[in-house]
Amino acid sequence: MSWYKPADVGFAVRAKLADIGASARLFARLMLLLPASLKRFGLVRDQIHFLGNYSLAIITVSGLFVGFVLGLQGYYTLQRYGSSEALGLLVALGLVRELGPVITALLFAGRAGTSLTAEIGLMKAGEQLSAMEMMAVDPVRRILAPRFWAGVITMPLLAAVFSAVGVVGGWIVGVLMIGVDSGAFWSQMQGGVDVWLDVGNGVIKSVVFGFTVTFVALVQGFNAQPTPEGVSRATTRTVVVASLAILGLDFILTALMFSI
Predict the structure, then answer these.
(1) What whole-number percentage of the chain has pLDDT above 90?
(2) Contacts of 8 (CB under 8 A, 6+ apart)
(3) Any residues with CB less than 8 A from the CB of 243 and at least 6 apart, and which?
(4) What is the pTM of this model?
(5) pLDDT tens digits, 153-199
C-alpha cells in the first residue's frame, strides 16, 4: 500500500521551489530599493530606533555576563600553562571573532526578528497591506524596505556594543575579582588583536547576520497566513530558521575567513 503519490511529492517540491523563487525576487527588490530608502531616511531611522534601542538592554546584559563567564573560564584554563596574563587577549578574540556576532544575532532574532514578523503578519491579517495596494502604495517600498535596511544597520552596532561590554565584563572578573595585572590584560589585548583580521571579520559576520535575520523575519511575516494561528506559526519559524541560518553561516564564514 502506497502512503504517498508521486504527484503529491511533485506538487510539494514545486511549491517549495516557488517559495524560494518568490523570496529571491523579494530580496532583489529590497536590494534595489536601497536608494529609495536612503531618500526617505526618516523611515529607516525610526526602525533603527525600534529595533536597536529596544534590543539594547538584553544585548548589554547578555554581553556583560558572557564577559564574566569568559573571564572565569579563560583564567582557569590559562593558569594551567602559566599564561594568565593573556586573559585579555583570549576574551577579546573570543568576543570580536565569534561570540559577539553570533550571540548578538541569536538575541536579535529572538527580540527584533519576532517583532518584525508579528508586525508584518498582523498588518497582513488586518488587510492593511492590501489597502495600501488599493491606494497605489507599494508595501514593499513603504513597509518592508525601511525595516530591512534598519536591521542591516542595527545588527553590527549591537554586535559592537555586545563585544565592548563583554570585554569590560572580562576585565571586571579577571582584574578586579581574580587579580590579573591590569596592564598585562590590556597590553596583551592591544598587541594580539588585529583590526582587519579579527575585528574586520567580526564586522563582516555581523553584517551578513543582519541581512539574514532581517530578511527571514520579513519574509515570514509577509507570507504568513492572515490568521492568529498563521502569525504565531510565522513568528516561531522566524526564530527557528534564523537561528539555524546563523549557525550554518557562521561555520561557512569562519572556514572562509581563517583559511585564507
Answers:
(1) 50
(2) none
(3) 106, 109
(4) 0.89
(5) 999 999 999 999 999 999 999 999 998 888 888 998 888 888 888 88
**Which residue shows C-alpha cell 523611515?**
43
> Of the candidates 93, 68, 106, 71, which has an alpha carbon nearest to the alpha carbon of residue 250?
106
Query: 195 — alpha (psi -120 to 50), left (phi > 0) or beta?
Result: alpha
Segment 31-47 mean pLDDT: 90
Distance in angstroms (rounded) separating the CA atoms of residues 36 and 200: 28
pLDDT at 3 over 80: no
Nearest to 246 by CA among 126, 102, 117, 70: 102
Instruction: State residue 51 phi and psi, 5-degree precision.
Output: -80, -40
Domain boundaries, the chain: 33-248
Question: Mind listing the pLDDT tens digit for each residue in 188-228?
Answer: 888 888 888 888 899 999 999 999 999 999 999 998 888 88
Show the DSSP H helices in the chain as ranges: 6-32, 34-39, 41-48, 56-79, 87-93, 100-108, 114-125, 128-134, 139, 145-171, 182-192, 200-222, 228-257
**SS3 call for 211:** helix
Confidence class for position 4, pLDDT limits 50, 70, 90: low
| pLDDT-derived band at 59, boundaries 50, 70, 90 | very high
Cα-Cα-Cα-Cα torsion 241, 247, 249, 250, nearest 10 degrees, comes to 160
Give the C-alpha separation, 193 to 102, whole Å: 19
CA angle (45 as vertex; 62, 212 as ends), nearest 5: 55
- 165 burial class (0-12, 13-18, 19+ CB within 10 angstroms)? buried
